[in-house]
Amino acid sequence: MARSTQQNRFRLANQILDVIRDAKLEPGHHLREQQLADLVGVSRTPIRSALDLLAERGIVETRKNHGYFLRKPFDTLHRIEIEVPTTIEEELYLQLVRDRLDNVLPNSITQSEIARRYDVDRVALTRILSRLAEDGLIARNKGHGWTFLPTLDSLVSLRGSYEFRLTLEPAGFLLPTFKADHAAIERMRLQHLYLIAHPDITSVSNTQLFETDAAFHEMCAEFCGNAFFAQAIQYQNRLRRLLEFGSYFDSRRVREWCREHLAIIEAVSAGDLAVASRRMRAHLEQALISAQAVAR
Known about the structure:
Elements: H1 3-23, E1 30-31, H2 33-40, H3 44-56, E2 60-63, E3 67-70, H4 88-101, E4 108-109, H5 111-118, H6 122-134, E5 138-140, E6 146-148, H7 154-172, H8 182-197, H9 206-223, H10 227-243, H11 251-269, H12 273-295
Antiparallel strand pairs: 1-3, 2-3, 4-6, 5-6
């Protein structure tokens, strides 16, 4: 199976989980391929592949000549998020940035040098370099080669990222277009309660912790009703994955930010957006202190 097709399969499986949770489906519910395909906007073939994946995970069951049926109640699925595998290009994107942050790569380098060092074909490398340029991490030299931008000075970037987010994220709650999706809020609340109550938070992967954290901030930005806010936070999350991943080893801080997120969720649910804005500011200020301590 092609890597991109496999990724789509995992993403569709997560979309089907969202449908199950939103509709509050109970065990035994018949998950009809055509109905799901219409809801998600794809054909039946990829839906069938995603349902097979959910069957492999024990979430649904296949009955010969009858189709797919839910095995688990919707309220036990809030803690389940199927991790989408990364592509080879995404892995190299992350590796290039991490190697630059660790000074393994020089500030300026040619495409040929990168291709030799990482044994990557030129077509794939061109796409990766274009994406790095779009994300503001690298720029083509006027003469020959590429130069990594100051964005990748980790401590400077970290502070700049949080200063930007402190300006943007608290303000989002105060926009007249802000409108919360209460089903999404409830799913997010349950995910955070699961982490807080987890008997051994160190056994939860850093990836799952990061994705929960990032999804919360993207959810709040999406509620703004302003696409520029949502796009900006998505970009900041890509940068945070590179700069802050190590901070997820701190189980005490993980539980702290979960509680801070829940306090913001509580304010949004109550319709008190001014309080939500203030709590978001306090949360980001504390997050910066913690992230800087890890980065030093």
